[in-house]
Amino acid sequence: MEVHKISCIGAGFVGGPTMAVFAYKCPDLQISCLDLDPEKISRWNSNELPIYESCLLEIVQNCRGRNLSFSNDVSNEIKNSNIIFICVNTPTKTYGEGAGCAFDLTYLESSVRSIASVLKDCTDKKIIVEKSTVAVRTAEIIEQILTHNAPGLDFSVLSNPEFLAEGTAVNDLLNPSRVLIGGKNEEAIETLANLYARWVPRTKILTTSLWSSELSKLCSNAMLAQRISSINSISAVCERVGADIDEVSTVIGTDERIGNKFLRTSVGFGGSCFTKDVLCLVYICESIGLTDVANYWRQVIIMNEFQRNRFTKCIITSMNNTLKNKHIAMFGFAYKKNTGDTRETAACYVASTLLEEGAIIHVYDPKVTRQMMLNEMNLHKFLDFISADKHLITETNPYEAVKNSSAILVLTEWDCFKDFDYTRMFQDMLKPAYIFDGRNLLNHSALREIGFRVIALGKSD
Ligand code: UGA
Asked: Is ipTM strictly over 0.95?
């Protein structure tokens, strides 16, 4: 099938960078990234993009105005496209059947309904690509909505889940570990595979059935999350038996069958995907009667909460169960380094418990804005009982953040935290001065020499 134009509904963390890389690698195609949010589109059309990713601005500037456009005009752009990607949010449902576990398909359904109403009189063949992370058999829902609302439309639905990680999105798109295309129609699969093959080696383009593709995406994230929960569970064992989690993790990771990635202990994984996707897998297992399997995967989430709570409890007990009006510096609020994203960040839960204890928290994060931090806290209703202005303060200078503080908490693994002048910080803090390293990032022996009491994950000293 010939392709001249591609459009994508949803200009978020996945849609924006993916379309930018398509435009960059396929200069002969017109690529259009669509969103109903006018503010988001105007930022994509400016030099202040709505998301930060290394090299993204350069690629957007290179292609915008040539073969890449960002627009609110969803109907017109879809009508003229041969391939339409759906990249909208599928958050966890907060109400009704499956609340707290299943995906909320509101945005996805309404996107498909718009596609159906715009394309109902179209005579040329269209490929609809499901890129949002979805539960298994969602492609069937898309097919049914299109069949019932655009009966004459000649279309194929493909599943093409995205595996990019935030912070490395452009590199992950340019050099993906694999591209996965699931579908029923060989011609449609081949058409999309040929586009990716312009820059991805054929051996890395995997084709499967629709259902395998949808399930593989959920399970890839579930298995990554499971590795982190596994190593975090072992960090608790290390603390009790006198072992060192970094040594244990290195030894485990040198077995080539296991590999060394995603074995870094932390205060708990965050981000918009892991918790949501594991919970969706739990829901699927429950709804098909596999209770033991559902319980197995639910344990990944329970262990993540256990790690977060354990870390927070350790801060409270180390500081004599007395945090009222104590100043605490929090280094990092993003769910991981190199992003300003705060969704489901462990920092949010840690901050909430310490605020309940009466602490005054000074947050320094190189990328997180105050608004983003407050949004995440408010989403969980963590600020309902305190005055954020007085108790949750954002600092633009880490040295100001530590002044008169009793403790420093490291919650994100930003590299710049390693280069701070901790001798200077120690002088400005109340004594004993604590460092609770929730990422095992800093040089603990050097900090102890300065005089800090250092408490780290999976270490017994
Ligand atoms: C994750 C997956 O890695 C991507 O492959 C996937 O495409 C994406 O979700 C998605 O479904 O959209 P992302 O959430 O951006 O990507 O971030 P990760 O790098 O996977 O980190 C997730 C969390 O795990 C972070 O909080 C990170 O700090 C934590 N982590 C990671 C650890 O605690 N330890 C590790 O060893 C690795």
From this structure: yes
